[in-house]
Amino acid sequence: MYVLIAYDVSTMTAAGKKRLRHVAKACLDYGQRVQNSVFECKVDPAQLVELRGRLTRIMKESEDSIRIYNLGSNWQRRVVHLGTKQPFDIEGTLLV
């Protein structure tokens, strides 16, 4: 399945800045950054549960917000890209 993750982590404190880095790192482990605080991830149901749990452990519910949008398996018809930065081909070859 294809999910879009958007987050807003409070960076008013050093701990908040650390949480921001940890949230970004967790998302990078599962997908591709497409905006500063937005990631596109192709995950199976077990990976989504794992990622959600990881993000829940990192975030501070009273200060941070994380949204996970499930675009499903037929996501190509639901994603429209306009402007710069060519879309990331999540189905293509991954070079590390």
Tell me what you see in this structure.
The chain is α+β, with helices and mostly antiparallel strands and about 100 residues long. It has one domain: Alpha-Beta Plaits, CATH 3.30.70.240. It has two helices and four strands; from the N terminus they run βαββαβ. It has a four-stranded antiparallel beta sheet with strand order 2-3-1-4, covered by helices on one side. A hairpin with a 2-residue loop joins strand 2 and strand 3. The longest helix is centred in the first third of the chain and has 15 residues. The radius of gyration is 14 Å and the shape is globular. The model has no long low-confidence stretch (mean pLDDT about 85).
